[in-house]
Specification:
GO terms for molecular function: ATP binding; ATP-dependent DNA damage sensor activity; damaged DNA binding; mismatched DNA binding. About 40% of the residues are buried. With about 900 residues, this protein is of the alpha/beta class. It starts with a helix and ends with a helix. Helix 19 runs antiparallel to helix 21 and helix 27 runs antiparallel to helix 28. The protein has 31 helices and 27 strands. The protein has six domains: about 120 residues, DNA repair protein MutS, domain I (MutS, DNA mismatch repair protein, domain I), CATH 3.40.1170; about 140 residues, 2-Layer Sandwich (Nucleotidyltransferase, domain 5); about 110 residues, MutS, DNA mismatch repair protein, Chain A, domain 3 (Orthogonal Bundle), CATH 1.10.1420.10; about 100 residues, MutS, DNA mismatch repair protein, Chain A, domain 3, CATH 1.10.1420; about 210 residues, Rossmann fold; about 35 residues. The N terminus is likely disordered.
Length: about 900
């Protein structure tokens, strides 16, 4: 039975279940985690769905109209792991907590239900817990806004506070989502169908919200109020779609976080012209942040990442995903890397310090959302401590401009650091409820409570000694029972003295027994109360102090964020310097020209993979320097020779240079690349009913429709998915369009050798080939690229290397020779077919396998007839005969 059915007639439902249904009705599109003591319980359809998704037992709790109510649950202490599984499987989760204790509820009546309500709606874009996030990646929540013919995209990472927005042509939505890789995208109701295909292609969760969330008038008020400003003009000039997208994010966060907004930074407006444009297909083909298998391993990012902090890792990915188009930015970053290379001892010391830096941004965000704990306080302390050490370090030479700016952000936190140092123990517990995170000596009242909690007997013993001294009665004792609590007991003969002045002013008579008289004092009664409540009191004091420390940190949040950015800047500069030294990379000369001259270029990922096997990587030059003309290399050569690797490595070199990194080459001169396009490899897109050839044509069309004269285009095997003449025609026309219309720099790999004629007809088109050698009928790949054209494709030899049966390989040689002869002699198609006994293979005797003949020849080469005895000659004859028959 579903919740909707049950809520239609709730008569007979228990008060607790009625409460559950009332809350669930507000969150119909989410699973409701309903807190019951130490478990989050789910009921009805939620329970069925969650039990299947989490692979946990589905039980039951009570009945309704004769049917069992399905139920399942997860422990509160392990809830984060279950949340992650549900989010990854596309669910949203409403977390309903108990807002009071059962004891407080009973004050309202014996059958009163504990108050509960949703305190948070968990969605892919609103995660903050370390266990639910990848520390080395941003987790963006994006919003796409459309107003008439204008559009904009805003994105925020509530785990770090980053908030950005940019104007956006609708055609660029896929490319920008590929760049940012958000976890969740918000769109207004009614335009989901326009975005759904792109979101599915990106693997992004799409969430539709009311159009009112995107209304620019209310959105401006909402965003301005968030930052305590009268308007957004103090942060820049924003268009209506940009304001709408920002407002939708803030509205969604207010809804999901139940009004407890994260600590967002003021919005930063990004210009689309400020970064290299790279579409989604190119990012996939080049495996920038993820390999084609979907994981991080094998990607460019995994290969170059030498960062030691979470913030530095996120900054590195951001720069890799968004290479700059501003020369001053690129050169400034390269200067920082150069400094760290030249001052290697400084770089080593900086990295040693950075290894101790926790994730300041995410600790700060959790504190702002009130989801933090003592370790987040310690993370801020430890991070600022390392920042302070780096701020006063002695650097061997003047830092680059970027590093000087970063260094300035690391200082000025002395007061907060001193406060946290004094207040916190070295290693705080994870949870606040565990207590013990405030350092001894910081708060006198806390120390006293702890002493009473931990040393109650000692405190009572000291009080007893004080009373003995005060009264002079050595027989005086302080005792305890469950009726009176703590009391002072003495013999009857001393009772008169204690009940007479001046002792009677201190000691209050409580009880007289046959042999003893019992007293108390105001001090003892207060101490008793303190001792009994000392544990709770100590924890309450720590909670109060935690709140004070949290507030002190949040007051300095902007400066802490700047310090975190400074630390990340140092980390990325050190990491790229270490990469350049370890891998022997060079500093590129990035300039305003249209040059692309690479000497000794290498593919960083392939080179790293080959190193593990002990094989060297063959470096190659590339020169695309056509001035105002197009500059295109038409690359021919066999499969498996390294054409695709050569194409990709030059694209990656351009990208690395403009992100501000040294590059895998011995020298590189690169004119700014505005757009990077790659069409290398393709597969069926069965979900959309598109064949491999259709995917190839769609990607090629996108390139030809968008590439400008500063683009770098790499194309591999255009037209190979259709008939030979069709494919050749498409490839030919594509190259002409790149040359005549786009005027781009391009590397164009093809097996259509007819196209090599274009090099003599079009200015700026040059032939290049990947060299091979043939030896004893086998092809050897040299992986060297040189000027000139290949004479053939060596497809049959590659097929042989792949392990095709020798019968197939030899038959292919016969067919190929006949086809080539027919082409040279120019027969008609009919005559050529007639000449080829294509269906005679079954009657033809099987040729001797070349590999076996090679073994026969090799054995003969080893024989020295003059040295053989008659018996040895006879045995050799049998051996050779066996080899021939085995063939």
């Amino acid at each position: 039975m579903g919740v909707d059915q049950l809520s239609a007639g709730k008569s007979g439902v228990t008060p607790m279940m009625a409460q559950y249904l009332e809350i669930k009705a507000q969150y119909k599109d989410a699973l409701l985690f309903y807190r019951m003591g130490d478990f989050y319980e789910m009921f009805f359809d939620d329970a069925v769905a969650a039990a299947e998704a989490l692979d946990i037992a589905l039980t039951k709790r009570g009945k309704h109209e004769g049917s069992d109510i399905p139920m399942c649950g997860v422990p509160v202490h392990a809830a984060e792991g279950y949340l992650l599984t549900l989010i990854r499987k596309g669910f949203r989760v409403a977390v309903g907590e108990q807002l009071e204790s059962p004891a407080e509820a009973k004050k309202r009546g014996y059958k009163a239900v504990v108050k509960r309500d949703v305190v948070r709606l968990v969605t892919p874009g609103t995660l903050t817990e370390d266990s639910l996030l990848d520390a080395r990646r941003h987790n963006f929540l994006a919003a796409y806004s459309v107003v008439r013919n204008e559009a904009a995209l805003a994105w925020a990472d509530i785990s770090t506070g980053a908030l950005s927005v940019m104007p956006l042509a609708p055609v660029r939505l896929g490319a920008e989502l590929a760049r940012l890789a958000p976890s969740e995208v918000l769109v207004a109701e009614g335009i989901e169908t326009d975005v759904q295909a792109i979101a599915d292609d990106m693997g992004v969760s799409l969430t539709s919200v009311t159009r009112g969330s995107f209304d620019s008038v209310s959105a401006e008020k909402r965003v301005s109020a968030l930052f305590g400003a009268s308007s957004l003009e103090s942060y820049g000039t924003f268009s209506r779609p940009e304001i709408g997208a920002l407002g939708a994010i803030v509205d969604y966060l207010e809804m999901t976080q139940k009004g407890n907004l994260p600590l967002l930074q003021p919005p930063v407006r990004e210009a689309s012209q400020g970064v290299m444009q790279i579409d989604a297909a190119t990012r996939r083909n080049l495996e920038l942040t993820h390999s084609l298998s979907g994981g991080r391993t094998g990607s460019l990012l995994a290969t170059i990442d030498r960062t030691v902090t979470a913030g530095g890792a996120r900054l590195l990915e951001q720069r890799l995903s968004s290479p700059s188009l501003r020369l001053e930015v690129i050169r400034g970053r390269l200067d920082s890397v150069s400094y760290m290379i030249e001052q290697r001892s400084d770089a080593a010391n900086v990295q040693d310090a950075l290894r101790k830096v926790p994730d300041l941004d995410r600790a700060l965000s959790r504190l702002a959302l009130d989801r933090g704990g003592p370790r987040d306080l310690a993370a801020i302390r430890n991070g600022l401590g390392q920042a302070a050490d780096l701020a006063v370090a002695d650097y061997g030479a003047e830092l680059s401009n970027d590093l000087q700016s970063a260094l300035r952000a690391l200082s000025g936190h002395e007061a907060l650091l001193e406060l946290l140092d004094a207040a916190l123990v070295a290693e705080p517990p994870l949870m606040m409820r565990d207590g013990g995170f405030i350092a001894p000596g910081y708060e006198e009242e806390l120390d006293e409570s702890r002493q009473l909690r931990d040393e109650g007997r000692g405190v009572i013993a000291r009080m007893q000694a004080d009373y003995v001294n005060q009264t002079g009665i050595s027989a005086l004792k302080i005792k305890h029972n469950n009726v009176l609590g703590y009391f002072i007991e003495t013999t009857a003969k001393h009772a008169d003295a204690m009940m007479s002045a001046p002792l009677s002013e201190t000691f209050i008579h409580r009880q007289t027994t046959a042999n003893q008289v019992r007293f108390t004092t105001v001090e003892l009664s207060e101490m008793e109360t303190k001792i009994l409540n000392a544990g709770n009191r100590a924890l309450e004091i720590e909670k109060r102090l935690y709140s004070g420390l949290r507030d002190a940190i949040l007051q300095q949040s902007a400066r802490i964020t700047q310090a975190s950015r400074g630390l990340a800047e140092f980390d990325v500069s050190c990491a790229l310097a270490r990469l350049a030294v370890d891998e022997n990379w060079c500093r590129p000369d990035v300039n305003e020209s249209r040059d692309f001259a690479i000497e000794g270029g290498r593919h960083p990922v392939v080179e790293a993979a080959l190193r593990k096997t002990g094989e060297p990587f063959v470096s190659n030059d590339c020169g695309l320097s056509g001035g105002d003309q197009a500059s295109i290399w038409l690359l021919t050569g066999p499969n498996m020779a390294g054409k695709s690797t050569f194409l990709r490595q030059n694209a990656l070199i351009a990208l690395l240079a403009q992100m501000g990194s040294f590059v895998p080459a011995s020298a590189a001169r690169i004119g700014l690349v505005s757009q990077l396009f790659s069409r290398v490899g393709a597969s069926d897109d069965l979900a959309r009913g598109r064949s491999t050839f259709m995917v190839e044509m769609v990607e090629t069309a996108a390139i030809l429709n968008q590439a400008d004269d500063r683009a770098l285009v790499i194309l591999d095997e255009i037209g190979r998915g259709t008939a030979t003449y069709d494919g050749l025609s498409i490839a030919w026309a594509t190259l002409e369009h790149l040359h005549d219309v786009n005027k781009s720099r391009a590397l164009f790999a093809t097996h259509y050798h007819e196209m090599t004629q274009l090099a003599g007809k079009m200015v700026g088109v040059d032939n290049a080939t990947v060299t091979v050698r043939e030896w004893e009928g086998e092809v050897i790949f040299l992986h060297e690229v040189k000027r000139g054209a290949a004479d053939r494709s060596y497809g049959v030899q590659v097929a042989q290397l792949a392990g095709l049966p020798s019968l197939v390989v030899d038959r292919a040689r016969v067919v190929l020779e006949a086809l080539e002869q027919g082409e040279r002699e120019g027969p008609t198609q009919k005559a050529l077919i007639d000449d080829l006994p294509l269906f005679a293979a079954s009657q033809a005797p099987a040729p001797i396998a070349k590999t076996k003949l090679n073994k026969l020849n090799q054995r003969l080469d080893e024989v020295h007839p003059d040295s053989l005895s008659p018996r040895e000659a006879l045995e050799l004859l049998y051996e050779l005969k066996a080899l021939r028959e085995g063939a």
